[in-house]
Write a structure and sequence with these properties.
Blueprint (H helix, E strand, L loop, with lengths): L3 E8 L4 E6 L2 E5 L1 E4 L3 E5 L6 E7 L1 E5 L2 E5 L1
Parallel strand pairs: 4-8
Antiparallel strand pairs: 1-2, 1-6, 2-3, 5-6, 7-8
Length: 68
Amino acid sequence: MKKYRFFFHYRHQTKSMSIHYRGKCVPVKEVICNAPCETKWNKTQPVLVMQGYSPNVEFIDDKVIIHE
């Protein structure tokens, strides 16, 4: 099964998390990450991003589950 890059970070404007997966940006309140991820530091906003690879990301209401 092919894995795709995901990353998520805190959005100050909406006071929630934002997850990016397969070209979509979705604001969520809760992130459950079951896949390995690493930190990425940027010089501009968002400064800290968590990123990794996953074959499946499931959106349920205001929650996202990132599967390994």
